[in-house]
Amino acid sequence: MSKFINKMIAGKKLFTPGPQKPIYLLNFVTNSCNAACDHCFYWEELNTKKRQELTVEEHGKIAQSLGPMFQVTFTGGSPELRKDLPELAYQYHKYCSPSNMTFCMLGYNTSRILEQAEKMLTDCKGQKISIGISLDGLGEEHDFYRKLDGLFDRVVNTVDALDKLKQKHPNLRIDIGMVVHGLNIERVEDSAKWVRKNLPIDKLKPILVRGNPLNPSTLDEQCTDIYHKIVDRDAQWLLSKSKTPTYLDRVIHAKENVSRELIKKISQTNEHQITCSGGRETAVMYPTGDIAGCEMRDDILGNVRENDYDFGKVWFSQKGNEFRDTVGKVKQCTGCYHHCFISPAIFRTPKMWPRIAKSIMKMN
């Protein structure tokens, strides 16, 4: 099946009324992580159930059942800790033909990440691949936030090495994810400026701390104001044509700009601006095969292993339908600004389209 036809099928899933299979998958491929971040919302699950993780073969069956998608994000834990990550990712390239595959990594093991990235770019011909590296501060500050000595220097080395790889593989994109939390609010603005000036990245992605962190003090009320300042300063850079070499890049950056404005508004008013994509466009899959409609809620819709690796059986089950009926109506949804559940919904919401078009027109 051609990539064009796959994109048409994914588009049909996005715009057809009623429940459809997701077009965006948050794929937790491992719980393993060698950091211990105070602001981590996933801390209770880290470094557990290693032997229960889905295998490459199992991921292949799941990918086949999902069919064409727009986005697959590989996260964890830290996905580079899976030695079979390239083989695992290939299953989604082969069966889902996503417009983009994103890998959220710590950036600690430079040589492994570089090897994995090159193999994925070589094996997944024509696939756009984004490597997102976490960076919350400079020097020893970042090491302290992530509880991992030497991490900052390794992140810089990893980004520089990926930039060299990008000269050979133009489908590679390099992002920095910067969480704004209660421990770094006094310095994170300067950290963001430093990243823009010194690291060869395609996109800086400020993330407003959320969820149920290990250290509740990271959920500081001042974080919202600092986040606003960072995204306001970053807007002009985000919409620079020099950083958007393809039309798809321009659309993605424009959507990112709209998403940031929505997050700002939600964090200020505590009110929803659009219908959440959880349980609709966006699905979450945990390392053992549990399926959820949202990271921030405890609802598990079912397990793919227990349903013959047929994603649809879980997604369209009674629990799946009950979840969709409660989106935006329960306490956990109030004031939620989770980026991954706002971004996909923007494309399905007609009133957002003029905003995307306006952002594209602003590019210079």
Structural overview:
This protein is of the alpha/beta class. Helices cover 44% and strands 13% of the residues. It has helices at 3-15, 56-66, 85-96, 110-123, 140-146, 151-168, 188-198, 222-238, 247-269, 311-315, 318-326, 339-348, 353-362, and strands at residues 24-28, 71-75, 100-105, 129-134, 172-180, 203-208, 282-285, 290-292, 302-303. The protein has a nine-stranded mixed beta sheet with strand order 6-5-4-3-2-1-7-8-9, sandwiched between helices. Strand 2 (71-75), helix 3 and strand 3 (100-105) form a beta-alpha-beta unit. It is globular. The protein starts with a helix and ends with a helix.
Name the helicity range: 40-55%
Order of helices and strands: HEHEHEHEHHEHEHHEEEHHHH
β-sheet strand percentage? 5-15%
Q: How many beta-strand elements?
A: 9
- Global Rg: 19 Å
Shape: globular
Uncertain residue segments: none
Q: What is the distance, rounded to the nearest whole angstrom, between the alpha carbons of the first and last residues? A: 37 Å
- What number is the mean pLDDT? 91
Q: What are the main properties of this structure?
A:
364 residues; nine-stranded mixed beta sheet; globular; alpha/beta
